[in-house]
Design brief:
This protein has about 375 residues and is of the alpha/beta class. The protein is built from eleven helices and eleven strands. It is an enzyme of class 3 (hydrolase).
Length: about 375
């Protein structure tokens, strides 16, 4: 029976492919290699790792993680937040800054994932829902909506940027694109309380289709990631747009990992739902956001995070912790020199199960 299960697993991996059949060779290779590596490893990621950190910003080839263990994270998180909602000059500057961050990471052999804290395109209030300001934008920007052309123009800007992220070898950097995350909460304007299931699915499908088919963006891997509000497979899939529209399934979970409580059993159970779905559907799985602000728990890395990641049967391509603010004395999620969790983080780094940028070898080649 064990041999049969292993054979089935290998067949599923060999058959799995990106939803973009014309994806670049490097994007297809990244997808396959992440799938293969998830059998025995997990890549460690950090949001905005090389753009800024605890007390610094815009320093070449620096990250707080590298300052602690000698390697950048394997996965670098960026954000398309500045790609709309600002002056043309500010948007241009944001795109150029993120382009450099992405191409630098690609040239080093690292992996890039992009979140999108998308400023409300039809009202004030930013990306958060503000009762006195925000409008439920989803119904306005989907096909047939009054602001659909506005949304297409924003996507065109993303598409132009996607065509610009070329490494030193002339190839386009693959990006794991994670739009409309944590959609099962109400804190963002695209959240569950502000749009119907049908409209959310329409938005997702149009976004992928327009980027991939109309704008010819072929270096994106599309990641679907709710927060941790689901308890069953059915609840996770409630707003799932369909297998032909998703490359990666994930979960954001801070609450069970120490922010609200330490409930590692629940965190592991929910990740197992995600992992099992991915294996069944030929998708990647990831722990797309987590962390403990200020990391006051001196053994959080091995006693909490690693313990969850090593849950039997779990296959995750990466785990990403949130950012280190450059000014706040308390808003950080990865250690920096002198931070109390550094000794434990070094144990986390040394564990053969975890991979950092230095550990990645030709991840963009099959």
């Amino acid at each position: 029976m064990k041999t049969l299960l292993l054979l089935c697993c290998c067949v599923q991996i060999s058959m799995a492919q990106t939803i973009d059949r014309t994806a670049t060779a490097e994007t297809k290779a990244l997808f396959k290699n992440l799938l293969l590596l998830s059998e025995d490893h997990v890549l460690f990621g950090h949001q905005h790792a090389t753009e800024y950190g605890h007390g610094w910003a815009n320093e070449a080839d620096r990250s707080d993680v590298r300052s602690v263990v000698g390697s950048h994270p394997a996965v670098i998180g960026v954000d398309f937040m500045g790609f709309s909602g600002n002056s043309p000059e500010a948007v241009k500057q944001a795109k150029e800054q993120i382009r450099k961050t992405v191409t630098d990471a690609y040239d080093r052999g690292g992996v890039i994932t992009a979140a999108w804290h998308f400023s409300n395109p039809v009202s004030k209030g930013g990306f958060y829902w503000v009762d006195s300001l925000s409008l439920p934008a989803v119904k306005y920007i989907i096909p047939g909506g009054s602001a659909h052309q506005t949304y297409k123009e924003i996507l065109r800007g993303i598409g132009e940027w996607a065509h610009s992220v070329k490494g030193k070898n002339g190839t386009l950097a693959p990006v794991i694109f994670r739009p409309f995350h944590e959609f099962d909460g109400d804190w963002f304007w695209w959240g569950k309380g502000h749009t119907s299931r049908e409209d959310f699915i329409s938005l997702w499908r149009f976004t992928v289709s327009y980027l991939r088919d109309s704008l010819q963006v072929h270096n994106f891997i599309y990641a679907f990631s709710p927060d941790n509000k689901f308890n069953t497979r059915e609840e996770f899939l409630e707003r799932y747009p369909g297998d032909e529209w998703v490359d990666m399934v994930g979960m954001d979970n801070y609450g069970d990992m120490g922010r609200d409580r330490y409930d590692l059993e629940t965190a592991a159970r929910k990740l197992k739902i995600v992992s099992d779905l991915a294996l069944e559907k030929g998708k990647l799985a990831a722990f797309t956001e987590t962390g403990l602000e200020s990391i006051p728990n001196t053994n959080w890395w091995t006693g909490t995070l690693l313990k969850v990641l090593k849950t039997p049967g779990l296959r995750l391509s990466y785990v990403l912790v949130w950012r280190n603010d450059m000014k706040s004395p308390t808003h950080y999620y990865a250690p920096f020199p002198g931070q109390v969790s550094v000794p434990d983080f070094k144990l986390f780094y040394d564990d053969p199960f975890t991979l950092f940028e230095k550990d990645l070898k030709s991840i963009y080649k099959l």
